Amino acid sequence: MHIAVIGAGVLGVTSAWYLSRAGHTVTVIDRADGVADETSFANGGLLHASHAEPWNAPGVVWQLLRWLGREDSPLLLRPAQIPRLARWGVNFLRFSSPRHFDRATRTNARLAVYSLAAIRELRQQTGIRYADRQAGIIKIFRDQQSLDKALHASRLMDEMGVRYSALDGRRAVALEPSLGDIAHELTGAIFYPDDESGDAHLFTRELGRLCGEAGVEFRLRTTVRQLLRNGDSLTGLDTDNGVIRADCYVLAAGSYSAPLGRQAGLYLPIYPVKGYSLTAPAQGWRNQPQIPLIDDANKVVLAVLDDRIRMAGTAEFAGFDTSLRQHRADGVLRQVVKTFPSLEEHLDRNALTPWCGLRPITTDGVPILGPSPLRNLYLNCGPGHLGWTFACGLGKVLAATISDEAPDIPAAELRLDRFG
Ligand SMILES: Cc1cc2nc3c(=O)[nH]c(=O)nc-3n(C[C@H](O)[C@H](O)[C@H](O)COP(=O)(O)OP(=O)(O)OC[C@H]3O[C@@H](n4cnc5c(N)ncnc54)[C@H](O)[C@@H]3O)c2cc1C
């Protein structure tokens, strides 16, 4: 079967890889000059099954209100966006009940564990490298309430195979000595030994090359203007390089999946939540951490990607505005320096590369994968803050679904029709 994949981010390229391995002829279409040029470009680099809980945890509404319009907050809701959030926003809050949160956490954790196994298998099969590191991930906490919440989520994730160990401050420093400067501030930490890290852009580029060798066609610098619909199926894609036709289509266009879907009469409950990252050279930072770190209360992460440090975080509800606001990027650095004061002396601020991207977040915090109401259109979108983590698992399940095979994990809970 000839399948056209819209989007060459990490989800589009992993889809193409597994579809091609399943024997399909695949064309990938993207408006950018290269693969992974948008949200998959400079993310936090964490393959974190440990972070599987959705963002709309119980109580998120109070967090949003507390930080409403505050430019220096890790979670920023711009008041002008409130009317635009409309249907999405109401459902985002509706799904923040404890029952929904627990269910979504389990679903995501199962998918994340499966995805990590898939990327390990891919490394073995292809030898692909992407500044990958298999050192686990450590989450740190400075107050008991945040630690208790994270332990609750960890217990749910553990049911799905995400192993963890709770540490007091002393044991956290013994495991990761670079935390020594803030030992007195730590209420505790949680270590997740099976998590990993790596550069999503490098991975997608390398996998794109392997896809090319396997016969996948890439049509870059090609913008899909419209999904052409006739009755209950798609007949083609109207692009600025002519109409592209295939037997079957996969929508993997990140946050833009929602407006593209809307043109074909589909409502995809995805909203773009902006985040920032900073990349800096790692050489010479003597006290650099060996284990990637998540500081959840301050919404920042740090990973060392070979010779680079990647710091990422913040969440901003600002619609499709992709402009880079330096003070938001500076906010990420400020938070990271609170944990690693020695970074301040090491950093050459002129060598910092800031970046921002739009996380495609669904109302229930679970990605959308599988069939759509249109007979020959499949969806692989809405992975939120977990797109890099989920990519291989989603690609594998998608290929099984399209090939009429039983996926290795339950897929019904990922389908669009779960929203009714
Ligand atoms: C600051 C930040 C930190 C993050 N950290 C992590 C992390 O540590 N771990 C993790 O698992 N996830 C992380 N994420 C999330 C992760 O990066 C995303 O979920 C993931 O990159 C989404 O991939 P995607 O392929 O769905 O979208 P994208 O990478 O955005 O790809 C979509 C593609 O579709 C193309 N496209 C869109 N519209 C059209 C059109 N009309 N025509 C043609 N092409 C089109 C775009 O050019 C783009 O290449 C982070 C995100 C951010 C912003």
What would you say the CATH architecture of the largest domain is? 2-Layer Sandwich
Bound molecules: flavin-adenine dinucleotide
Low-confidence stretches: none
Morphology call: globular
Plain-language structure description:
The chain has helices at 10-21, 60-67, 82-94, 98-126, 144-159, 169-175, 200-213, 257-263, 326-339, 341-346, 387-402, and strands at 2-6, 25-29, 46-47, 75-77, 137-141, 165-167, 188-192, 196-197, 217-219, 224-230, 233-239, 242-244, 248-251, 270-281, 293-295, 300-305, 308-317, 353-362, 368-371, 377-381. The mean pLDDT is 95. The protein starts with a strand and ends in an 18-residue tail after the last helix. Helix 1 packs parallel to helix 11 (387-402), helix 4 (98-126) crosses helix 5 (144-159) and helix 4 packs across helix 11. The strands form 4 sheets. Strands 4, 5, 6, 7, 14, 15, 16, 17 and 18 form a 9-stranded mixed β-sheet that branches. The chain has a 6-stranded mixed β-sheet with strand order 9-2-1-13-20-19, covered by helices on one side. A 3-stranded antiparallel β-sheet has the order 10-11-12. It has 11 helices and 20 strands. It has 420 residues and is of the alpha/beta class. The longest helix is centred in the first third of the chain and has 29 residues, at 98-126. 34% of the residues lie in helices and 25% in strands. The protein has 2 domains: 2-40 and 202-268 and 365-419, FAD/NAD(P)-binding domain; 53-98 and 132-195 and 271-362, D-Amino Acid Oxidase, subunit A, domain 2 (D-Amino Acid Oxidase, Chain A, domain 2), CATH 3.30.9.10. It is globular and about 65 Å long. The protein binds flavin-adenine dinucleotide. The site of flavin-adenine dinucleotide has 44 residues, from helix 1, strand 14, strand 18 and helix 11. Residues 6-12, 29-32, 36-40, 43-46, 48, 223-224, 252-254, 256, 260, 275-277, 301, 312, 357, 359-360, 381, 383-389 line the site of flavin-adenine dinucleotide (FAD).
